[in-house]
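Researcher: Quick one. two chains, 329 residues in total.
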Amino acid sequence: MPDRQAIEALIIESVQMLAEDFELEALKQPDSDSPLYGEGGALDSMALVNLIADIEEALAEKFERSVALADEKAMSAKNSPYRSIRSLTDAVIERMPA
Amino acid sequence: MKTIVITGTRKGIGKELAEYYLAQGWKVIGCSRGESSIPHEQYQHFALDVSDEQAVVAMARQIKSSHGSVDALLNNAGIASMNHALLTPADTVNRILQTNVVGTFLFCREMAKLMRRSKSGRIVNFTTVAHPLNLEGEAIYAASKAAVESLTRILAHELAQLKITVNAIGPTPIETDLIRGVPQDKMEALLARQAVQRMGEVRDVINAVDFYLRAESDFITAQVLYLGGVC
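Model:
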């Protein structure tokens, strides 16, 4: 299984590509704590959908792992996994098959 | 060269659609549960069950690495079973819903992911006049296509921001395996309910699909077009 650093790097790269595509200045140089979705986050719901699809695709391509990030657990979680890059990294690690 | 994905290309309307778009100079990627029946340089075939999520995802990944993206999807694959509701086993119900509803959804989802980066795309789903005509003996088939119509309208809204249009076409009966076994008197009664009372032909389907696929049709989405004057 890839380590946390590799997963976070993949998510940061996906966020950067999305930020270019959607012209989101706030996310062009993201770090672990950059807010993504929800309070203070720069993503609207459509940008979030695109980001999740990008990350799922990248995980499949780079690590050959099939991860569904928008599962029922994520949608109903008290603390949304889509808040920040850190929380998204946690969500990927939690769902990644060994 | 444009790329189109067509499901259910081994026979019937799907095969003819594939051959038509190949003749028009498109690259065609088809699928069916069996092996390919279309020998053509620009045709690529995947043998899979359209309701098998893993297989559909794997197909989409392969298309992404070989083609990058796709321009259009025709969700043609479908099965029917004509029977009285009192005699229809749950296995048949599940099989029809799996292929017609789950299969259509999976292809919409995976191909829309491939279309989204090019900010354009055309999805055409297949429904049937059996739904608006409430045809007896086709409860499950018609219900499955009612679901496809609902899916079409909602996906049209969800995918509009990605510049992907989603429409449906509802053919009247066409001479294919799907209607083999329907009694002659039933067929005549059905034709009598159409404004134009003749059997449909593949060219009628192609004409409607071509309209949806045109670049100028970027303002046409969430529509269901029944052939033969059925409404």
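Helices of chain A lie at 4-22, 45-63, 72-76, 85-95.
Researcher: Thanks, that's what I needed.
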